[in-house]
Design brief:
By secondary structure, the protein is α+β, with helices and mostly antiparallel strands. 55% of the residues lie in helices and 9% in strands. β4 and β5 form a beta hairpin. α2 crosses α3. The N terminus is likely disordered.
Length: 209
């Protein structure tokens, strides 16, 4: 009888143990499943956020690029009324103005060193350079001769502000030369301070920029 009770007791204990172990395993599996789901949801949220941030960054970069391009176009393609920006013509005008300025400066310096009297050259309007061919002013004659020796075919028009005697007066206008192919100054070059894309459309003969 005792053996039978012992066997029955052992069977009951075994059944209880199996039930408990099964419940623990199910609970652990459930927890692992929930943890995996939470992890997947977190990864999904992170991925979505990352994509959103990438999209925002790309959009901002595109906007910045568009703004930069617009600024560059505005700076380099400013136009006078009906006149397109032409970098080559402005470069030529600047180079010619510099050549004339250098000729005036060199000639006047040589004359002063030789003890000759030198007068300032001031034109009140743009004048044709080929009109200097027979000039009695040695500086203007030197300008014509220098361009002629260069093989120039279009002498163009020049505005000259060349004061031989410069003092320390702050209000005195610095020496400068402006040159253009035509008297209306479609494309004006200047020296000192050459014309560029930012001021070509507003520069005028007789007004230094």
């Amino acid at each position: 009888m005792k053996k039978i009770l012992s066997i029955m007791l052992a069977a009951v204990m075994s059944a209880i143990c199996l039930t408990a172990c099964g419940d623990s395993s199910s609970t652990a599996d459930s927890k692992n499943s929930n943890s995996s789901s939470s992890s997947s949801a977190a990864e999904s949220t992170t991925t979505t956020t990352s994509k959103a941030e990438t999209t925002t960054t790309t959009t901002e970069a595109t906007t910045t690029t568009q703004e930069t391009t617009t600024t560059q176009q505005t700076t380099s393609k400013v136009e006078r009324v009906g006149i397109p920006y032409n970098a080559a013509k402005i470069q030529l005008a600047n180079a010619t103005a510099k050549f004339i300025f250098t000729t005036l400066n060199t000639t006047s310096s040589d004359m002063i060193l030789e003890g000759e009297s030198v007068d300032s050259v001031m034109t009140d309007k743009p004048v044709p350079v080929d009109s200097f061919k027979d000039s009695t002013d040695p500086l203007l004659k030197a300008v014509y001769d220098a361009l002629n020796n260069m093989g120039t075919t279009n002498y163009g028009y020049v505005y000259i502000h060349f004061d031989v005697i410069l003092d320390d007066d702050a209000e005195q206008t610095p020496n400068f030369v402006q040159w253009s192919e035509d008297p209306t100054g479609t494309y004006i070059g200047q020296y000192l301070d050459p014309v560029d894309a930012t001021n070509w459309s507003t520069i005028q003969f007789g007004i230094k920029q």
